[in-house]
Amino acid sequence: MSIRLGDEAPNFTAETTEGTIDFHQWKDGSWAVLFSHPADFTPVCTTELGRTAGLKSEFDKRGVKVIAVSVDPVDSHNGWAPDIAEVGGTDLNFPIIADPDRNVSQLYDMIHPGEGDTSTVRSVFIIDPKNKVRLTLTYPKSVGRNFGEILRVIDALQLTDSAPVSTPVDWWPGQRIIVAPTMSTDDARQRFEEVEEVRPYLRWARQPQT
Ligand code: BEZ
To answer: Cβ(45)–Cβ(87) under 8 Å?
Structure first.
């Protein structure tokens, strides 16, 4: 079953490098990033998991818990962890789910048979504190993801949840935002700074403080 934005993130129980977890209990009302990688001891995956470990303080700052999954068993994940630490320059500091039965991978539709085999593709799910799926990304096995982009989207989601705004093309934190169409320009001038009406439907404003 495919998962759509706004769906509840399916719960599961699984073995991980940090013991058995119930996903919703582990998440415990935080934001979460659940992402899959095709296989342990592979080059692109090693760089991705190393980078994610190195970004721990950035995820922590945003109140986000990170968890990875692949179809390899826990022993394999544990054997691979020193390589991830060496390549990424930081010890593995988030759990990796072992999914040899493919329960989690199938629940989240992470196996795309047209991509070659029964390992997972590179899926990303950003899940909010109420367990709603807020972003999905699917990358092919041969292409590593940009974890800066994942942080950027988390910033945009947390901002747009806190005020009637949207983020424009190529937005980065600190840049101007777009006033939501549901708000009049007069109201926007009361609420935001530096409102500029380019079109009646396109109003820029300075990014509000959250
Ligand atoms: C990799 O992580 O390098 C990789 C894994 C599976 C297929 C292709 C590349």
So the answer is: no
Q: Do 98 and 50 belong to one domain?
A: yes
**Three-state DSSP string of 86-109:** HHHCCCCCCCEEECCCCHHHHHCC
The number of C-alpha atoms within 13 Å of 112 and in the hemisphere containing its C-beta is: 14
Q: Determine if ligand 1 sits within 6 Å of the CB of residue 45.
A: yes
pLDDT above 90 coverage of the chain, percent: 97
Residue 19 beta carbon below 6 angstroms from any ligand 1 atom: no
Residue 19: band (very low, low, confident or very high) from pLDDT cuts 50, 70, 90: very high
Structural domain boundaries enclosing 168? 163-205
What separation in Å is there between the alpha carbon of 159 and the centre of ligand 1?
34
Catalytic residues: 45
User: What pTM value is reported for the model?
Assistant: 0.96
Say if 6 falls within a structural domain. no
Say if 192 falls within a structural domain: yes
Q: What's the pLDDT at 158?
A: 98
Q: Percentage of the chain surpassing pLDDT 70?
A: 100
d(CA 185, CA 183): 7
Q: Are residues 139 and 171 in the same domain?
A: no
Q: Is the CB of 42 under 6 A from ligand 1?
A: yes
Mutating to test ligand 1, I would choose from 72, 87, 112, 142 the residue with most ligand atoms within 8 A of its C-beta, which is 142
